[in-house]
Design brief:
The protein has five helices and twelve strands. It is α+β, with helices and mostly antiparallel strands and about 180 residues long. The radius of gyration is 17 Å and the shape is globular.
């Protein structure tokens, strides 16, 4: 039984990759390694999946020197996360990316968790981080990454358009979110 003075054994990215290779974790296991601790991710709701699909369609092929990846692994300080969408310069073969031009998290019920991720994303040099707050019908855009976080945070509401920093077309928030729930 753990005591108040018990230490947590922290895992590394390499530890988790060995667990995958050994079959301890499989491709169906949705986990993130945050500060050395494995965290289960919540199941995907239909609203979440619909928004992620729209993001994928919008950013796939939008920039010839970048790739759009959906729910893939991004290595960050202290572990890895699985953003809903990231736009990256392709890493060397056989490696997961460790930074991105753009990361988007869709929050249906994970707003606090996704807001917390701004720090690790900024430290990883992610140029732009969006949190799509589906129930609030707002996209919070973080720009100007630094070691202490993002220097600019702007909310875009239902009637606004977002122009990503990378060469890609602007995106209407209402088109991203779809029709409001009845």
């Amino acid at each position: 039984m753990p005591t108040a003075s018990s230490e947590v054994h922290r895992l590394s990215y390499e530890d988790v990759m060995r667990m995958v290779d050994a079959g301890v974790l499989g491709t169906a296991d949705r986990v993130e390694l945050i500060d050395g601790v494995l965290h289960d991710m919540s199941p995907l709701s239909p609203t979440h999946s619909e928004i992620v699909a729209r993001l994928g369609l919008h950013f796939t092929g939008a920039s010839p020197e970048h790739e759009a990846r959906v729910q893939d692994l991004l290595v960050v300080e202290g572990g890895f996360v699985m953003p809903d969408l990231m736009v990256i310069k392709p890493p060397p073969p056989g490696r997961h990316p460790n930074t991105a031009v753009l990361v988007v998290e869709v929050a249906v019920s994970s707003q606090r968790h996704d807001a917390w991720k701004a720090g690790p994303y900024a430290r990883a040099g992610v140029g732009e981080y969006w949190i799509v707050d589906a129930p609030g019908r707002v996209v919070r855009v973080h720009r100007k990454a630094g070691r202490r976080g993002y220097g600019e945070i702007v909310d875009f509401g239902d009637g606004a358009e977002i122009a990503p920093a990378l060469p890609a077309p602007a995106f209407a928030v209402s088109a991203l979110l779809g029709p409001p729930a009845a």
